[in-house]
Amino acid sequence: MKAKLKRVLALLIVLIVAFGWYVTCVGIGPIESVKEEMKFGLDINGGVYVVLEADQDDISDMSADELKQVMEQTRAVLNNRVNAMGISEATVSIEGTDRLRVEMPGVENAEEAIAQIGQTAQLSFLLADGTVALTGEDVKDAGIDTDTENGGYKIDLSFTSDGADKFAAATKQASSGQVKTNEVFEQIGIENNAVIIMLDNNIVTAPTCDQTINQASCEITRRGGGYSKEEASNTAALIKGGALPISLHDITSSVQTATIGVDALNKSIVAGAIGLGLVFVLMIFVYSILGLFADIALLLYVLLVLWIMVGMGSVLTLPGIAGIILSIGMAVDANVIIFSRIKEEIAKGKTVRVAVDQGFKNALTTVLDAQITTLIASVVLYEIGSTTVKGFALTLMIGIVVSIFTAVVITQLFIGIIAESKTFSKNKFFGVKEDGTPKKFIKKEFDFLKNRKVFYCISTGIIVLGIVFTMVRGFNYGIDFTGGTMIQLDMGKTVETTEVEKALEDYDLKDLTVVLAGAEEDQVIIKTINALDNEARQEVINTLEKEFKLDEDCVLASEEFGPTVGKELKTNAVKSIVIAAICMLIYIIFRFKSWKYGAASVAGILHDVLMVLSFYAIFHVTINNPFIAGILTVVGYSINDTIVVFDRIRENKRLHHRSQSNDEIINHSINQTIDRSIMTSLTTLVSMIALFFMVSTSIREFVLPLIVGVLVGTYSSIFLCSPLYYELNKADDTSKYVKANKSKKSKKKDNK
Questions:
Q1: Confidence at 379, pLDDT banded by 50, 70, 90
Q2: How many whole angstroms separate alpha carbon 427 and alpha carbon 437?
C-alpha cells in the first residue's frame, strides 16, 4: 500500500472513531446512543426470572428424543402464556435437557407472574360466528403423526365421551353452510365452515370441515404439504387442554428492581471509563507515540465490541460489562507483544522500517496462539455456564476476536506510517535508546531456573495452607452453591440488624445473616440457606413490611436457589476446567509439536486454579456462581501468558540450539518476555481495579478471582511453567550429553 493511501486511510479511521464515539454517547438521527440501542439483562432493567425443572416422575421413562420434544412443547405453551400476559421482550428458553428459563422484564410481582405462567390455559373450540362449541376439558389428548396423503405431519385429536358429542354437533353445524363468519374472524380470513381452536383469545389453528365427524377422534391436516414436525408438535401441545405436557417446579427464581440495576450500570460505566483512561495514560507513558496509536486502536476496539453486541441483539448484563472491561486490558496485550518485538529488531541493528515489518511477522504467531487459547476457555465457559455466566463469556469471546483485528490491522497501519515518517522513524519513538539498547522495566537478566526450587516451595506452601484451611473450616459457599434465599430491602433508614433477625425468629431460617447495604446503609440484605419459594418469601417480606412500616416498593431484589442448583454448579465448574484444559493441551501440542509444552502449560493451569482456591479458603471469601467464570477466565489468562513465553522459547531453540544450552535458552526467553508480562498484567489490573471498588457486589464477585488470577497467572508463567518445561527436558539434555561424551571417547580410541 502506498504511503499516501495509508495516511488517508489512517485519517479516515481517526474520523470514524471520533464520529463513532459521538454516536455511541449521544446518538444521531434515527440512531440512538448505544445505551438506548443496547438490550440489557434483568439485572439492569429489573424484572423476574424463574428456572423451572421437569418433575423426574414425568420424564424418567422418556428417551432423549422424547424428552427433547416434550420440553419444546412445554416451551411453546409457556411462551404462549407470557406473550398473552403482554410482557415486552419476555423469553422462554430451554436450559440443559430438562429445564426452562422464563425471563419477564419489568415484572415486579414474582409470585403472581410465576403462578400465572404455570396455570392451565383456557382452550376453546369456536364456530365462525363466535359460538363456543366445546372447551379444553372436552379434549382427551392431542398428538402428531405423519401425513401420508399431504406429506409432512398431521395433528391427531381425541375427545372425552361428552367432548365427542359436542364436537359432532359443532362439525355438523359448521359443515351445514348455515354459520356466518362474524366481523372479527372475517377480517382475518376465517371461513364459514371453520372450527376455530383458541387458546387464551389467541387462534391456534382454524381447520375447516366438510362433513359431520361422529367419532371420538379426528385429524387436522393441511392440504398441499402438511405441517412441519415442529409446527405440528407445538400446535398439538397448545391444543392439549392448554395444559403443560409435564409437571414443573421452580428451582431458582429472582425478582430484581431496576433501581439497583441502573445504579450498578451507571457506576460500571464510570468505572469502565476510569479504567480505560488509566490504560490510555499507561500506554502513552510507557510507549510514547506508539502508545497513542495503540489507544486509538483501543477506542475502535471498544466501539466495535459494543455495536457488534447491538447488531447481534445480544443482552448485556452486569457480568457482561465486567467481561468487556476485562477484555480491554487483555486487548492491550497484542499491542504490547508487537511493540516488544519491534524494539528487539531495532536493537539488532535493523532500520525502523525493516524492524516494524519483521516485528509484526514475528509477533503474529504469538498473538494468535495466545488469544486462541483464551478463546477456547471462553467457548467452554459459554457452552457449560449458566445464563449469567454466558453473558460474561459472550462479551469476552467478541472482545478476543475484535482485539486480534484491531492489533494486527489497525495498529499495524498506524505504526507503518510512523516507520515511513522522517520525523518519527527514530529509535527513541520505538522504545530504543540512541545507542541501540531497548528501554526495559527490568534491565538485569535473572537466572530464573537457578532458584526454581524456591518457587516450587512457595507455591506448594500456599496450596498446602489452602488445603488445611479447607479441611478445617471449609469453603465459604454462597447460596448459589448451598441453595438458599436472598432478599434485599430498602428500609428507608438505618436499622439494627439484630432487630431484623428478631422479627424473623418465627421462621426458623438456618444460617440467617443480615447485613447493611447501600451508600447510607439504609438497605438490608437477608440471606439464609432455606430455599424459600415465592409464597414463603412473600410471607417474610410481609412480616418485615408490617414490623418496620415499609411500603410495597421496599423490595429491591429477591432470589431463591434450590439445593440441586449448587451441586450442578460445582460439577460444571470442574467439568469446565477439565474440558478447557484438555482442549488447550490438544491445541498446544498441535501448534508446538511437543507434548512437553502442553504438559507444562496444563500443570500451570492446575497450579493457578489451586492457588486461587487457596486464596478463597484462607481468606474465607464467598464463592458464588460468578466464581466459575472467574476461575475459567483465570485459566485462559494464565495460558495466554505462558504461551507467550513458550513461543519465545520455541523460537530461540530453533535459532540457538547449537550455540546455547537448554537452560540458557529458557532463562533468556523469560527475560526477553518479562517486560511484556509485567505490562500486560498492569493494564489488565488497572482496567479492573476501578470496577472492583466502584460497583455492586455481583460484579465484584466476578472481578475478585480475576484480579487474584492475573497475579497468580503472571507468577506461574514466569517462575513455574518454564522451569517445569526445563525439568521435562532434562532427561533429553542428559542423554545428549552422554551421547556426545561417548562420541568423543570413541573418536579418541580411533585416533589411538
A1: confident
A2: 9
